[in-house]
Amino acid sequence: MRATLWGTRGSLATPGPETVRYGGNTSCVEVEGANGTVLILDAGTGIRRLGATVGPDVGRIDLLLTHLHMDHIQGLGFFRPLDEPGQEVHIWGPPSTTLDLRARLSRYLSPPLFPVRLLDLPCRLTLHDVPLGEFEIGGLKILAALVCHPGPTVGYRISEGGVSIAYIPDHEPALGATRFPDNPDWISGFDLAQGADLLIHDSQYNAVEYPRHVGWGHSAMAHTLAFAAKAQVKRLVTFHHDPAHDDAALDRIIDEARGSADLPFELIAGTEGARFDLGPRTASARPTK
Amino acid sequence: MWDAGMPQKAVEIILMRQLASYLAMPIMLFDPTGNLLFYNEPAEAILGRRFDETGEIPFEELYTLIELTAEDGSPIPFEARALVVALQKRQAAHRTSWLLKPDGSRRKMEATAFPLEGQGGRHLGAVVIAWEADQP
Fold first, then answer.
1. What is the DSSP pairing of strand B106-118 with strand B93-100?
2. Is B5 part of any domain?
3. Torsion angle of C-alpha atoms A30, A34, A35, A40, degrees rounded to 10
4. Per-residue confidence of chain B (136 residues) as pLDDT tens digits?
5. Which domain holds residue B89?
6. Which end of chain B has the smaller Cβ count within 10 Å, N or C?
7. Tally of domains within chain B
8. Number of A:B CB contacts under 8 A?
9. Does residue B42 lie in a domain region?
10. Are strands B27-30 and A140-146 parallel, antiparallel or unpaired?
11. The CATH number of the domain where B59 resides is what?
């Protein structure tokens, strides 16, 4: 299994010379299974570049949305495979309590916000209300669970051949907790992350910023580190960087995190373009660029 | 207390506990089978126990701790209890009853229970809000 980060920024795309190292595109991660199965996690602005690498040899694309905040769907209208006649695309995401995924996505993919309607896309598009629990796509085992973030939001755990990736880009597990981290069964997202080989997790704020943003659905770095340690992950990738954090600020935050404790996992700053190979992997079903 | 076999709580349950821990009226949080998952500090006075000491309380044990009766001392039928209505019929319910407290006194109690229904038709349990009737 291979994971590639195509967008690591949170909230708002933040291009510019001051963010060029960690990247300015919003959330998008590609996961490729050993047999060539392609999963895309979220459709932030990073998905536009990813779309350019997807050739006609990819028979089916599954796009798994964690939620429908704009920074996670804004790239959808610019994902080239959606414009390919006959391309099979499945979009999975959480429904609301009253609207299914199609109705919710159509609020964005329709005039006046976007000129093309969802139903006018030429690809073979299927929308799925994501099941809460386990399901399988192309040999990849997926666990989806609601996590603590405003509005219906899920995190994903993807497993194959004994290795697993947990993806929880927008998550505030410490919200309201009198003790954090407490017993694992009372921690939002714990089952998704437990023992993961790679955890990609929200780390939007530093310790000074978090108190002003309690309840906004994002984590302070200290909470992310504590969550990852409790879950006994092997590697933690920080994610959903605050738009106000330029490369120098992110360098400082990561340096402080590494110096704050003897971390029981490898801490990796989420960087656009980074690629992680996990476990045995056969030849790629499609070329990479 | 937590052990590795305990299932992950749904996020709605986690958020409900967090809200309850900040509120000043007694709140008890139950799973679909009636096990007491959490009770806040004001509810500790009713149960005569501290959550930090007991952790979750199984259904069977809970009913050795709480004795609810009608005003004349007769037992309240199981299916008439507010919690049971919320869990079994998935309806909100309100009941007045008398509670034999751990110190031996009998107190008139009001209890409101409502079911917790999650997305996708998931029945997550119920919440009971209780207070002594003679208190403001």
1. antiparallel
2. no
3. -10
4. 445 567 789 999 999 998 998 889 999 999 999 999 999 999 998 888 999 899 999 999 988 888 889 988 898 898 999 999 999 999 999 999 998 876 778 889 999 999 999 988 899 999 999 988 875 4
5. 11-132
6. C
7. 1
8. 48
9. yes
10. unpaired
11. 3.30.450.20
